Amino acid sequence: MTPLLLPLPLFRLISRVIWRLPGTPARKMAEFSHVESGSGLDMLAATEAATDPLLRRKYFRHALDELKHARMFRERARILADSHGRAHAVLEDTGFIGDHGIRSDRSLVEQLGETEFLAFVWLHELAGAAQFEVYAELLRQDPDSTRMFEEIARDERFHIAYSRAELDRLAKAGAPVRRVVWTTRGRDLWQSWGRFAASFGDRMAAIWLTLLYFGLVAPFAMIARSRERLPGGLLPAEAIDPPGAYARRPG
Ligand SMILES: [Fe+2]
Ligand SMILES: [Fe+2]
Fold it and tell me: What distance in angstroms lies between residue 159's CA and the mean position of ligand 2's atoms?
């Protein structure tokens, strides 16, 4: 869930609960490292595709920033992970970017075209900056993480400013920027909702299956096992008096 999907106060409230769960900061940072790597690769693809040398330079700086953020999150996740294996597993998951829809085989700029790509960058940078501000607040007791988020926030401000300036330039040149921004926002909301619904569904399925196991399967298994130990009906004589039992009996 991101501020793209939720109003900021609700996002802050939910994050406050989630980030207190043991191992969550490390796991989240491990996940962010993959997201930032994916963004870095998309920005490199945009750098290759850009024809305007000034825009290419901005895309390239943006790509280097995102790859730097990926490294910062990875290092912080490693430090915070401690004994929480889940964060290490996320860090070592080489298929994370593809499996979580962060990137596909075709680059984002190739899929969207320049105007929509810039609208996407601007909206996501705005949402990311708001999101990281909330996390920095939640990790106030951890000065290293707070410093890291502050450094990232400085870079994000540049990403927001230049993508907005490029959209303004395109609007002045007659591109339908306002419509593209609304379309991109709508599609993002829809996709965020789909991701949230899928992960919520997975969690609910896990909870129901656990309840089903402990509420039905486990008690029936225990009853069946206890009945095995106390067989009813006619029993063979050896089951009651093993051979030679009377012979050993004194008297
Ligand atoms: Fe970033
Ligand atoms: Fe960024």
Answer: 6
